[in-house]
Structure formats: structure tokens, C-alpha cells
Amino acid sequence: MLFGKKIAVVMPAHNAERTLEQTYAEVPLEYVDEVILVDDGSADGTAELARSLDITTIVHPQNRGYGGNQKTCYREALRCGADVVVMLHPDYQYTPKLLVAMASLVAVGQYDLVLGSRVLSEGALKGGMPRYKYVANRLLTLFQNLLLGKKLSEYHTGYRAFSRKLLLTLPLNENSDDFVFDNQMLAQAAFFDFSMGEVSCPTKYFEEASSINFRRSVVYGLGVLATSVAYRLHKLGFARSPIFEANGAKLSLDDPQA
Length: 258
Hints:
Blueprint: E1 7-13, H1 17-25, E2 34-40, H2 46-52, E3 56-60, H3 65-79, E4 84-87, H4 99-107, E5 113-117, H5 123-126, H6 131-148, E6 160-163, H7 164-169, H8 181-191, E7 196-200, H9 214-236
Parallel strand pairs: 1-2, 1-4, 2-3, 5-7
Antiparallel strand pairs: 4-6, 5-6
Helix pairs in contact: 1-2, 6-9, 8-9
């Protein structure tokens, strides 16, 4: 626990057998109450390894997509009573050593959402991010800051900490099951006026680290642009989008499909 708050770490996993143990070894378990891994139809031994490490493990028999995986992650964390939920990829791209710092900022009520930014302190390029991805990151972030009225250094990191209130409030079940889920979630947090902070986070790019290919990156980028435009149009009242409706579908803790 941190500041009297229950901390859960969730790991959306797909074929993470080669990096899971290394990642888990650095999780500060003295502060973490629950670690939950959701195996999204892996073809390797991710689930078996996770269970051998005493990680709470949930398996999707068929791949539901990165967004679908996260929906299960957050639902299960809420079910176990977590007050703060940190998403940590099990591919060792982000250091678990920042878990306490990020979770603490949420636990004390400073922010509802904290991002581990790869861009602050030039962590992305130093860690080996492909230059085309870095340039796209900067352009998309500039576009989103303009349309969302925010000043974040990036919207595309997969290292995030959330308050329980945020996860229960956002209509997350309206979001895509694909990679753009990440971006839709941040746009929703901005729309519903949740406070957002960032910490500088080093990152590593290597063969075993998960990364989407160029084609999927383009699809994701187009999704980011569409999400930003939908945000602005909804905000101005010109067009309605279900992901920004207060009565939109939220995570159900009684969902029998989880």
C-alpha cells in the first residue's frame, strides 16, 4: 500500500515469455498489493510462467486486441479493490522502478492519471525509438495538445497510473479494442476534466520488446487524429461521439465475459 491506498499493477501481455520474469523481478512488491497479468491469446508460455511467479493470471483464449486486453486488466484490478492501478508492459520496455513514484502521485490525490513520458529528458531517442516513430509522436502530440487544450509531452506512452475514480467514470467499453484505445482513454480523461501529470521515463527498444509495425503505426496515427477531431467536435456540440458521453458504457465489475 501507499498512503493507505491499495496498489495494483496490471500487465497486458501477448507472447511476453522472454521478458516477463525480468520485468517482474523489478516490481517493488513491498508497495504493491496485487499484480495481475492478462494473457491475450499468447502462443508461448507467458501464462504458465506468470503462474509460476505467483502472478494472478487471466487468459483470453482468443486474442481480443490491446484495448480489449486493457479492459480486462482494469476490470480485474477494480474487482480486487485497487485504489490505484498502474499499467506496466511485461516486455521490459519501461522500468518498473518508477512504479512507486507514479502510483504515489495518484495515491496522494495530486493527479488522477500519471504518464511515464519517454519524451521528457530525451528518453525516447536515447532508448532507441525509431526516428520515424519519434517524429510522428511529436507531430501527433502537437496536434492533440492543440485540439484537447492540454500541454502533455506525449500521448503515446504505455506506462500509466490511474485512480479508481477515473477507471469507474470513463466510458471505457465504448473504446476500440485495438491500439487506439490508449489514445481514446487519454482524450476521455481530458474531456471529463481528470487531472493529468507526467514523470520522465527512460525506455528501451530491443528485439523482444513489443512494438507495432509501420502499417499498424499508420492505422494508429489515423485513429489518433480521428479521436482528436471527435473530441473537438463533441466539445463544440457539432457532433456526438459515444466515447465522450457521460452515460456511455463503462466497465462492469459483474461482466460475465471477463
